[in-house]
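We were asked to recover a plausible sequence for a given structure. The inputs and outputs are reproduced exactly as logged, with field labels preserved.

PROBLEM: sequence recovery
POSITIONS: 304
GIVEN STRUCTURE:
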């Protein structure tokens, strides 16, 4: 799509400065451009030469003068002629698919973590689009039909992200048959108060490295949750020895992938030394906490 037609379309709604045009296009999820400011102003010069827009310098007392652009009758006719041409098919060139194409080089946990991170990025995009819509960003509504069209354009963007999440969920399920490593974790999916979390009370092989953490992150992704409870019996003894660095490396993985984690301790009396300090420090934050009471751990996971 030529940026010129995006400019003509926006100016058909109201007269604007080059800066205002740049801001609207930059914030739009579907008006593609290179991000180079010169592209906007170069296109405006071309539109002026073609007679599709005019400009007027407006002087301001307390601010620099500004140049305001207005679409002409010829510009409106050119815009309509462009809208009438046959639409191009949608593009499906996604950098992530190229990345995923060589995903067989990863082990089960690494691949699950990759999918989990992609899912997180998509969810952030959905929230961003919902916020843009809520703030009432540029969205002309000169007629009820135009208002509906723009509403459905925003819905199309959000639906695309939601469909991507559904596809990722299906991919995770299909990959489950090949992820033998992940099956060494004994976990259950718990649902309570319309919230869902993964509980790993035990493991055939105790959680002893970052790979095991990635396995659990993958399990969270496959079950569409970012909340995790880990029982002390599922953890290697070295987890509770701060000098080994095991607790720090594992918990950092959960933080990096935005998995809210509650660690349920079997016997708090056995927690001593530096790990006791870690316990006190961790419970000031909201990324992971340590508990000696399952009810308290669950309440924190699903209510905060």
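RECOVERED SEQUENCE:
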């Amino acid at each position: 799509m030529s940026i010129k037609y995006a400019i003509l379309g926006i100016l058909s709604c109201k007269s604007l400065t080059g800066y205002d045009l740049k801001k609207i296009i930059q914030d739009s999820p579907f008006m593609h451009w290179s991000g180079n400011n010169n592209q906007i102003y170069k296109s405006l010069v071309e539109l002026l030469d073609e007679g599709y827009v005019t400009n007027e310098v407006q002087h301001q007392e307390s601010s620099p003068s500004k140049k305001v652009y207005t679409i002409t009758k010829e510009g409106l006719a050119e815009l309509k002629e462009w809208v009438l041409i046959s639409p191009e098919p949608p593009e499906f060139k996604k950098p992530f698919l190229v990345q995923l194409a060589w995903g067989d080089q990863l082990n089960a946990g690494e691949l699950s973590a990759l999918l989990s991170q992609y899912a997180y990025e998509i969810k952030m995009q959905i929230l961003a689009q919902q916020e843009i819509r809520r703030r009432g960003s540029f969205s002309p509504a000169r007629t009820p039909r135009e208002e509906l069209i723009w509403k459905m354009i925003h819905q199309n963007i959000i639906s695309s992200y939601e469909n991507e999440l559904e596809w990722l969920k299906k991919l995770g399920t299909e990959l489950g048959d090949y992820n033998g490593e992940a099956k060494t974790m004994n976990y259950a999916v718990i649902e309570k108060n319309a919230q869902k979390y993964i509980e790993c009370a035990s493991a055939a092989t105790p959680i002893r490295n970052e790979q095991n953490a990635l396995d659990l992150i993958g399990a969270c992704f496959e079950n569409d949750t970012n909340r995790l409870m880990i029982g002390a019996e599922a953890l290697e003894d070295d987890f509770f020895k701060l000098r080994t660095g095991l607790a720090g490396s594992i918990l950092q993985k959960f933080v990096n992938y935005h998995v809210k984690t509650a660690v349920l301790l079997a016997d708090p009396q056995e927690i001593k030394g530096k790990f006791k300090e870690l316990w006190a420090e961790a419970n000031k934050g909201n990324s992971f906490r340590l508990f000696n009471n399952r009810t308290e751990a669950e309440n924190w996971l699903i209510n905060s």
